[in-house]
Specification:
globular; 4-stranded mixed β-sheet; Four Helix Bundle (Hemerythrin (Met), subunit A); 2 domains; Ribosomal Protein L15, Chain: K, domain 2; 11 helices
């Protein structure tokens, strides 16, 4: 199982003997710096938050060689950049060619499968929260090739106003019949910031899996933003998003009110971030058995490569399992 490491304090990172050597500033003034080592092959995601983190070029090269997703954060301690290897598979040139030459009908069919599974997982997320999910299940069956009817947006319009209504933060509004208390915003405040941080971790996991399967994360099957270097990752992560959503629901049960911001204006405390950093190891239902999300992502990426190569027509996605 690959580890996710996050550095929220000043640190110096270097490497030696295939180990990531970590030297952190002592907690008390005048104390000795803390030094630990971690085998690089055991790392899957590395998050660099603090502006006073120094990483050697040799360490960065060693991390990339092991296909570690390295995430850098901005001055608000939010993920802003992602480093991935240029070469991740022995058949990468062939995989690139197959991906580039994929026919439009195939891409539309793959997007149909992606949207359908996303809506199914959204329905399961609502059901786990004790909310009516039948409309979503019905719409999942109506998704056509390429989703020309935009069932994804229709499902989102039903899903987001209801997802958090049974959490302490929104329960009063729900009792009053107000389903507009929460608005999903990419740059919104609490609890949008939880979702955004979680999605950034998820995106890194998916992008890492795509690279490991010899695919180019830039070339999407649906997303085509010319300024987005990870269109394919954004496509493939869609059915995984409800896993993050449910984790945020659990966090809201424990933290019904937004925390006080720190000196940098950041309301995501280290404790909250640690919960979100569990995303790669969260269990999902994959091919009739429980599997860590990061392993499921690798299986999904491999199935996509098989579709591009003509060996399969079906993407393999996880499902959210509801306890009976």
């Amino acid at each position: 199982m690959k580890k996710t490491l996050c550095f929220s304090n000043p640190a110096y990172l270097r490497t030696g003997l295939r180990q990531l050597e970590i030297e952190q500033v002592a907690a008390e003034k005048g104390g000795k710096p803390q030094k630990v080592t971690v085998p690089i092959e055991e790392i899957g995601v590395l998050v660099l938050e603090h502006p006073q983190i120094t990483i050697s070029h040799v360490a960065l090269a060693a991390l990339i060689e092991e296909n570690v997703a390295v995430i850098t954060c901005n001055d608000k301690f939010l993920p802003a950049g992602l480093f991935l290897p240029l070469e991740g598979h022995t058949l990468q040139a062939r995989r690139f060619r197959e991906q580039i030459e994929a026919a439009l009908p195939l891409k539309k069919q793959l997007w149909q499968q992606t949207v359908r599974q996303k809506i199914i997982n959204q329905a399961r997320a609502l059901r786990r929260q004790g909310i009516e999910d039948k409309p979503l299940l019905r719409w999942s069956l109506e998704v056509r090739s390429g989703d020309p009817d935009n069932m994804e947006a229709r499902a989102a319009a039903y899903y987001w106003p209801r997802l958090f209504i049974n959490t302490p933060l929104f329960v009063e509004e729900a009792d009053a019949g107000d389903f507009d208390a929460f608005i999903r915003e990419r740059y919104g405040d609490w609890p949008n910031c939880l979702l955004n941080y979680g999605y950034a971790i998820l995106r890194a996991v998916i992008a890492r899996a795509l690279v490991a399967s010899g695919l180019l994360p830039t070339l999407g099957i649906h997303h085509r933003n010319q300024y987005n270097a990870y269109c394919l990752a954004d496509d493939i992560m869609e059915p995984y998003r409800p896993v993050v959503d449910l984790l945020v629901c659990d966090i809201l049960q424990e933290h019904p009110n937004p925390p006080e911001p720190d000196q940098y204006g950041n309301i995501l405390s280290p404790a909250l971030k640690r919960k979100l950093l569990q995303i790669p190891v969260l269990d999902v239902w994959m091919e009739r058995k429980l599997s860590p999300l990061q392993i499921a992502a690798q299986r999904t990426a491999a199935s996509l490569a098989a579709c591009f190569g003509g060996q399969s027509k079906e993407l393999i996605f996880p499902e959210i399992k509801i306890k009976s």
